[in-house]
Amino acid sequence: MKTIKDLAIKDKNILVRVDYNVPIKNGKIESDLRIRASLPTIEYLLEHGAKKIILISHLGRPEGKPDKSLSLSIATTALKKLLPKVKIDFCPLPSNNAKLDIPKDAQVILLENLRFDPGEEANDKKFIENIIKATDADIYVQDGFAVIHRAHASTDAVKHFLPVYAGLLLEKEIINLETATKNPKKPVLLIIGGAKVDDKQPLIDKFSKIADQIVVGGKIAADGYKSKDSKIFVAEDFDEDTEGHKLDVGPVSTAKLAGFITDARTIIWNGLLGYAEDPAYATASTITAELIGEHQDATTIICGGDTTGFVETLIETHPHLKYSLVSTGGGATLEYLVGKKLPGLEAISK
Questions:
Q1: What average pLDDT does range 281-306 have in this prediction?
Q2: Beta strand 246-249 pairing with 238-240
Q3: Which residue range forms the structural domain that includes residue 297?
Q4: Where are the beta strands (DSSP E) in the chain?
Q5: Is the domain of 158 the same as that of 272?
Q6: Sign of the C-alpha dihedral computed for residues 43, 44, 46 and 51 taken in this order
Q7: Which one-letter DSSP state was computed for residue 95?
Q8: DSSP 269-315
Q9: Which of 3, 168, 267, 345 is the most buried (most CB within 10 A)?
């Protein structure tokens, strides 16, 4: 696929699909991982002389109508703190056939939540065409990895109006996931946690042919998940609360998992191993995150919203931990790993 490194950028207006669907609590961003992940692409475009960079994203599920609590103005504030030397402005979505009133000195402009208009999720060609005309965009850059599994206007319909190139975040995600599925360093270890076995079973099935070892923990294991596959180890002991609820993988199974991590050269982790919201039951997940982050000889991929959030929080107090990829994708990552076609990826110029 073609990336922004294949582009002549100077003096061009670049429309960039980012993913600023960040978690918000009490009017504050809880994790700015996805905003920070967009910075390499923005900085690359600025360094190579882009005339204007217009960022577009969604936030939450406003169901096609404005919702002040889901305004992307909050992301604009965060972006200004991360890029203090860059002139950044915020603009509403354009009206039909109207040019956006963009300040001449603005280098980066973030538009309002795409999902405030029903055209985004309806994959409406006229909706995205209107944005392109309003911004005088010359080139479209897809850098919202977490949404490429959706056939929406900003991921799919846009290909009818502009050439689509991959941003640096999207490229990084795909390269790492491609390496893990197509040409992984052996041994390959897949760690599965979380609560919904229906979400994780396709990943287990896919990696039963690729992985040398699969470990299942979390509520899935606590609820009695079983497998006849000899390469699948299901946690056997658990830490329980006073009422007997199995809320974390126990020390014996955690020690066995630690051995698998040490031996592995490709590690994919999706799903927390316990009820990590309570520090008392975050032990297995913490040990796993630390061992993976210290394993610099392996390709290490962290995916799934709860897992990436947990790891990002841990990194704040343990900055020495390093991972090949802390994926910004949730459903997109899972669908890519199991081999599904993703509309946003198919739209990128080959």
A1: 94
A2: antiparallel
A3: 175-337
A4: 13-17, 24-25, 28-29, 52-56, 88-91, 108-111, 139-142, 164-166, 188-192, 213-216, 232-234, 238-240, 246-249, 266-270, 299-303, 325-326
A5: no
A6: negative
A7: P
A8: EES-SS-TTSGGG-HHHHHHHHHHHT-TTSEEEEESHHHHHHHHHHH
A9: 267
Of the pLDDT bands very low, low, confident and very high (cuts 50, 70, 90), residue 320 is very high
Greater model confidence, 14 or 104: 14
Domain shared by 117 and 190, yes or no: no
Same domain? For 326 and 184 the reply is yes
Shared domain check, 189 and 153: no
Confidence of residue 184 (pLDDT cuts 50, 70, 90): very high
Beta bridge mates, 31: none
**Please, is 112 exposed, middle or buried when counting C-beta atoms within 10 Å of its C-beta (0-12, 13-18, 19+)?**
buried
Question: Within a domain: residue 346?
Answer: no
pLDDT for the residue 58: 97
The domain tally of the chain equals 2
Q: What is the mean pLDDT of residues 134-140?
A: 95
Both tokens assigned to 317? 């107090």
Domain-located, residue 347: no
Residue 349 lies in a domain: no
Rg of the chain (C-alpha set): 21
Task: Please state the rounded mean pLDDT for residues 50-57.
Answer: 97
**87-130 pLDDT per residue, tens:** 999 999 998 878 888 888 899 999 999 999 999 999 999 999 99
Q: What is the DSSP letter of 104?
A: T
- pLDDT category of residue 269 using cuts at 50, 70 and 90: very high
The Cα 28–Cα 147 span in angstroms is 23
61 in any annotated domain: yes
| pTM of the predicted protein model | 0.89
Are 196 and 258 members of one domain?
Answer: yes
Which of 129, 153, 168 finishes a domain?
Answer: 168
Return the closest-CA partner of residue 94 out of 74, 76, 119.
119
Give residue 345's pLDDT.
93
